[in-house]
Design a protein that fits this description.
It contains 15 helices and five strands.
């Protein structure tokens, strides 16, 4: 987000982000989907918009499709990071400043470490296949962000959510980067979405010390490989989706070097070619 913010000044496009919400909602009701599409479409192009939200089909709602990009992360490392992110003291300081009447969480919940949570069989860390629990800020299912708002997308680690997510990535996303391979991610963004990401790789490494400090959680202890493997056993389809995105990213980079390689062109990329002043949704 910070990189895109700086690129907005460099490449002269609008930078917009979702407002801080009392309750983060990832899956939207139909009326809220229309409101999101209307909001994004209202920004003078070229413009970018960032939000934690499931894939929203703008065309189906009667609005022009933006260029979609996203970044995935190793699903187990991601769920560990989220576990400690929502327990970090500064997270609740920011929340209380925005919403002073919010109650503080139970101290026992704040002090509960991830390894104990997994090994004790705590409900929060079971990750049961087919489970549809959607707690506040539930970020366990990376596929959910790509699958969409439909009920079929909600069961954890499901085959249908996986297949839908893969299809949406292939058909709708110009680039889905990989956090663990930032060089490849930024190179693909530069080459496939240059209007917004020109110079991203150079800027990232010039400002690496700044970017590496953002969202760093000093309250996140190490987690043993043994515990990670226990969790991985329940994340089989989430891991498959992550590997699918990695493979697609590498295929896109190979296609840049070898013109004989064909990579499906997302509809958002066709939209980019048709409109000189597009909108980007991240």
């Amino acid at each position: 987000m910070e990189l895109l913010h700086r690129l907005a000044y460099k490449n002269q496009f609008g930078f917009h982000r979702d407002a801080v919400q009392r309750v983060e909602t990832i899956r939207l009701a139909p009326a809220d989907q229309v409101a999101l599409a209307s909001l994004v479409s209202s920004y003078d192009p070229p413009a970018s918009y960032i939000k934690h939200v499931c894939y929203t089909n703008f065309t189906r709602l009667g609005f022009p499709s933006p260029i979609y990009v996203n970044v995935v992360r190793d699903p187990v490392e991601r769920v560990i990071s989220w576990y400690y992110y929502v327990r970090a003291p500064w997270y609740y300081v920011e929340r209380k400043r925005a919403f002073p009447d919010l109650p503080l969480p139970d101290p026992a919940w704040l002090k509960k470490d991830f390894e104990t949570c997994v090994l004790s069989g705590d409900r929060e860390c079971r990750y049961v296949e087919g489970q549809t629990h959607e707690g506040i800020g539930d970020h366990r299912r990376q596929t959910l962000f790509f699958c969409g708002h439909e009920p079929q997308c909600t069961p954890f680690n499901s085959v249908e959510a996986l297949q839908r997510a893969k299809r949406v990535v292939e058909e709708q996303y110009a680039v889905v980067g990989v956090l663990e391979d930032m060089n490849s991610t930024l190179l693909a963004l530069e080459r496939y979405v240059p209007r917004f990401f020109q110079g991203a790789l150079k800027l990232y490494w010039e400002e690496m010390n700044t970017f590496s400090r953002i969202n760093r959680n000093a309250f996140k202890p190490p987690v043993s490989e043994e515990v990670k493997q226990i969790v991985r056993a329940n994340f089989t389809r989430e891991i498959e989706f992550y590997e699918f995105c990695k493979q697609r990213l590498h295929m896109q980079l190979r296609a840049l070097r070898d013109p004989t390689i064909t990579v499906p062109t997302p509809r958002s990329s066709r939209t980019r070619r048709a409109h000189k002043t597009p909108r980007l949704l991240v």
